[in-house]
Amino acid sequence: MQRPKPRNNKSGWLSDLVLVGSVVVIAALGGLVSGGDSDSWYQALSKPPFNPPGYYFGIVWPVLYVMIALSAVIVRRRVSYIEHAPTSFGIFYLQLCFNGAWSFLFFFFHRPVWAMIDLVALWLIIVAMIFHFGKYSKFAAFLLVPYFLWVTFAGYLNGMIIWLNA
């Protein structure tokens, strides 16, 4: 696959801002519905072994969101215009939708099984995103590996919550 040659893109900062802003919006929406330790429904659930304390999520997710946004910005700068990598950025936005949907399905609607289905799809989408971003930047793809690993761990937590609370 021949990569487009980078061109001087004076509006590139605007594209970067949209990418970063999209990640911030998803993070904020997820934070609004994720009550964590203050959510009585979540507190009443039986938790699996290795369930981290609630404050871990408040540390890990912001770091992951920064890495996701940075990865997208690196690829955008590599291709100059988002339109030069429509599949890659389509996958990027798709994973943001599934990422945000999980919080609503699990915490807002109290549907762990639906959330697990969403999580499996998100996991597959992250794999696709790593592959597609890797075509443009190995470093951008590498930045997504912790996200992949955390979502894998989240799948264990979500699955065990279903199992323990059936």
Q: How many E-type strands?
A: 0
- Biggest pleated sheet: none
Query: How widely separated are the two ends?
Result: 48 Å
Low-confidence stretches: none
Q: What spatial form do the alpha-carbon principal axes imply?
A: elongated
Order of helices and strands: HHHHHHH
**Tally the helices: what do you get?**
7
Strand residue content: under 5%
Rg for CA atoms: 17 Å
Multimeric state of these chains? single chain
Mean pLDDT: 92
Determine the structural class based on helices, strands and strand pairing. Answer: mainly alpha
Write the layout of secondary structure elements.
Blueprint: H1 12-33, H2 40-44, H3 54-79, H4 86-108, H5 112-134, H6 138-143, H7 145-164
Quick structural gist:
It contains seven helices and no strands.
Structure description:
There is one protein chain. By secondary structure, the chain is mainly α. It is 75% helix and 0% strand. The chain is built from seven helices and no strands. It has helices at residues 12-33, 40-44, 54-79, 86-108, 112-134, 138-143, 145-164. Helix 1 (12-33) packs antiparallel against helix 3 (54-79) and helix 5 packs antiparallel against helix 7 (145-164). It is elongated. The N and C termini lie far apart (48 Å). The mean pLDDT is 92.
